[in-house]
Amino acid sequence: MDLDKLRKTAAEVVAREDVRYLLGWKKGTFGYRIAPGFVEDAESAAELIFSPLCTANLATYLTLTEKPPLPRGQEPDDRKVAVMVKGCDSRAVTQLLIEKGIERESVVIIGCPCPGVVDHELLAEKYPETEETAELKWSDKGFLLLQNGEETEIARDELLAEKCRLCRYPNPVVSDIMVGEPVETWEPDDDQGVAEVEGKNAEVRWEYWQEQFSNCLRCYSCRNVCPLCYCEDCILDRLNPTWIYRSVNFSENTAFNLARAFHLAGRCIECGECERVCPANIPLGKLNRKLAREVREKYGFEPGVDPEAEPFQASYKPDDPEEFIL
Amino acid sequence: MSAMLLNKEKWSDFVGMLAGKNLWAPRESDEGLRFVPVAEGEVPTLDYNNTRVPPKEAVFPQTETLFKFKVGGKDLEEPRPDQDAVLLGVRPCDARAMHIIDELFSWDEDDPYYLKRREKTVLVGLACNEPGLNCFCTSVGGGPVSTEGLDLLMVDLGEKYLLEEVTEKGSALIDEVKELLEEADDNSSKQKDKLADEAAGKIKRSIETEGIPAGLPGLWEDELWQRVSASCIGCGTCTFLCPTCHCFDIQDETEGFEARRCRMWDSCMFREYTLHTSGHNPRPTRSERTRNRINHKYSYYVDKFEVIACVGCGRCINLCPVNIDILDILGQVKEEI
Amino acid sequence: MINKENPYIPYNATVEDTWYETGGERAIKTFKVVFDDENIRKSWEHFPGQCAMIGVLGVGESMISISCSPTEGEFLRFSVMRMGKVTQALHQLEPGDKMTVRGPYGNKFPLDQWQGKHILTIGGGIGQAPMRPVVEYVKSNYDNYGGLTMIYGARTSGDLCFKEEFEEMSKDDQLSCHLTIDIEEEQWDHNVGFVPQILMDLNPSPENTIAVTCGPPIMIRFVLENLKKLGFEDDQIYTTLENRMKCGIGKCGRCNAGNMYVCKDGPVFSYAALKEVPEAFA
Question: Residue A82 in contact with residue A23, Cβ under 8 Å?
Fold first, then answer.
């Protein structure tokens, strides 16, 4: 990835009169951290980076913007928001377009073909983080780590995030501007990383999820980081009526996690953010991918690919064979 | 108070002798390291940095039943936490956090649930020889061998643990395992001091807090709050994993004919936290909520209890999904003051 | 009194009488409540300005102003607007039904310090609930105060609370009572106009007077402005704040306005004190 080109493009976009700010990735405050950047002027575009550390799906900020009541007489700023997207992130944008969560005219999409990002936890485990910010680049072999003045070659398989191993859309599916050449796609495992759990009997699976959900702290980071969880008033927060009690226990946690998973069936675009941010390490990706596979196989729908598609959960066909519905 | 030595070879015997005591220690599992009750025959390892969820959950559980009742009934049944507990391997920062929130829970009206648990719990600390990446305890009044809040401090001297009594609860515990211990000599205390200095030297991150509590109110309208909260997604990670965060919600929950009123951790970073039933929200956006979080820790709490409600454990920095870094925020606060 | 053993344990109380003050979706219903335990009844002490956590077991609790003065007798009164889950459940209660009460919480209107002064209450809508105990308290201690003026308004006459008391009030020649509604209505022979305007029309002298106000935020804002225009000093003006509350005892965290807990340091604040609280008018 040519960073100069990326920054130049970003600077041009953000300088446009019809663009409010640009969402991109910046170096974080220490170690391998990346911080989402809100770039408002061409000068700040120089801080942008794109590297295998850029896991964050910035599309989430398109719907996370708060709209507090404006002071009398003040007009809302409805200029476009520019957003840098990897392949998976672009699917979130596309799915938002399908659902009419955002309007096409409201965004400038800057596509960044992505050879795959790293699993941060794995990276920190194998190559301990230091307080100095480190750089990680894509290399022929996989990744090149530049840390404390030292360079380390790391094989791709050693650190590649699971969601990237399973990725079928490394190149943005929608964009206004592409930065860099499309990357060559790779063959994902066809089981979507769920075969291991699927292969076990119901009792064992139940036990497995029971243990996982028991660990849930209900911090809602999975929901809040999710680009497709953008209901203004989440049913899981509602107290009147209370659908899910706030008590943190296996039963309520399960209700929360399953309700979220079902609401994301046919909508989750597998960016893996929920699993990445979960402080209790719940393998939410497995759950979402399982549902994604069911939807793909049974309904032939894949979310976040075709912006003209009808939203899966909101469409009805009179000639639906409904073969698998009891 | 005296100091004793425990040879590491006797560690499993030590744990064994305390086995009847509702012993808690960190254990590694899928979710990461967390304080859990020690299983029968389990010998916990003390080779770790720190747990993800702070041990405050042993005295301030995430969900706690205040009382139970029958649906339609009016008799309240109060569960009184009365079980003794021993927490093994609490880091000085986390013990100090409990010491700090003791003030809140005993302010004005006593909180019987928290205080009872606190009274019944013995905190056996473990001094930090290897501080974590984002530790900054020394900036906020703590340190790798701080004993505030602890009953007993253990220091890993290599082949032996040094056990320093801090409170009578700690001494009582020492008495129960005396046969495994030997008297500490001058040398071990020198060794401890050396390790403590070295550990403090390894702490890489810091903030000069002087001036922050007094300066924060003046920054109320500053645009820095907008800036530092722009990327906040409004989740509860920073607050739930904070050892001094103590806010809670109270809810009634029923299951069949059984009902209970319980309290559960709440987070000032949630929209619902301050939302009035009318729909009005005095903190309508994440920027006001972030401002409240920082002000509560570094200004309001200082006004009320004369101590900063942050122990520098680094959890909020380590685990924030979007790299909102309290030291970065405080740095910007310092610049604006 | 606050349960010293365990402040989270509420007392059982029985609804003795109940009536609707206003109708509609957000109706206001008043409850006259008596503690079941005689000891509690005897030892309970509250004062104008204070609140209590009232609730229905199995549904939850809400912090509500105590809308009666201790001088009225050994009972409590609450006027509750139907808003959310708990207040909906409270509205279902009829005489003989049980509710739970814990408290009293918060500080008090410093009525002792105001002895000898003229008391001016300015209420709007449900905001009259904390004003009513002030009025009642002064009424039962007229000798100790320099006079009592009450301004109370609502959108329509149907939205006024405590209507059944107006007639008696009009006969009380020590009370200067000014009722108002926003829009003209047939058979309404009191003022028409917004509360802040009625205040200006009345033009009370600030001399030796304390003004106490509660109502919708927009009303409070203009009342404060107008009181200042009339020459009231900041320490002659008092109001009450409300925020979401759960514990009532300064632990659960959410009700803070700046470094003040509304449940402990409030709900009563002088305008002088409030000016120092950054979030007070948020």
Answer: yes
Q: Which residues in chain C touch residue A240, judged by CB atoms under 8 angstroms apart?
A: 84-85, 88
What's CA B249's distance to the chain center, in Å?
Answer: 19
Clarify whether residues C128 and C232 are in a common domain. yes
Q: Is the peptide bond before A128 cis (omega within 30 degrees of 0)?
A: no
Q: How far apart are CA A242 and CA A28, in angstroms?
A: 39
Kindly list the domain boundaries of chain A, sorted by start residue. Answer: 3-65+79-313
10 Å Cβ neighbour count for B184?
21
* Interface residue A133 vs chain B (CB under 8 A): no
Pairing mode of beta strands C60-65, C51-56 = antiparallel
Task: Give me the CATH number covering residue C29.
Answer: 2.40.30.10
pTM of the model: 0.95
- Residue C124 sits in the same domain as residue C222: yes
Q: A263 is written with which tokens?
A: 């609401």
Domain limits for position C53: 11-104
Looking at the fold, whether C17 and C92 belong to one and the same domain comes out as yes
Provide DSSP, B250-271.
EEEEEETTEEEEEEEE--TTSG
Instruction: Indicate the DSSP class of residue C99.
Output: E
| Predicted confidence (pLDDT) per residue in A142-170, tens digit | 999 999 889 999 999 999 999 999 999 99
Q: Which of C282, C267, C257 is nearest to C52 (CA)?
A: C267
Residue A248's nearest CA partner among B64, C68, B213, C103 is B64
Q: Looking up tokens 């009164």, which residue turns up?
A: C77
Give the tens place of pLDDT for each residue, C34-70: 999 999 999 999 999 999 999 999 999 999 999 999 9
Residue B1, pLDDT > 70, answer no
Round to whole Å and give the CA distance between C235 and B31: 55
ipTM over 0.85: yes
* Listed residues C70, C104, C138: the one ending a domain: C104
Domain match, C140 and C203 both: yes
Determine, for residues A248 and B233 on separate chains, whether the beta-carbon distance falls below 8 Å.
no
Is B19 buried (19+), middle (13-18) or exposed (0-12) by CB count in 10 A?
middle
Chains with 3 or more CB pairs under 8 A to chain A: B, C
User: Domain of C213: which CATH number?
Assistant: 3.40.50.80
Residues of chain C predicted below pLDDT 70? none
Is residue C6 within 8 angstroms of chain B, CB to CB?
yes
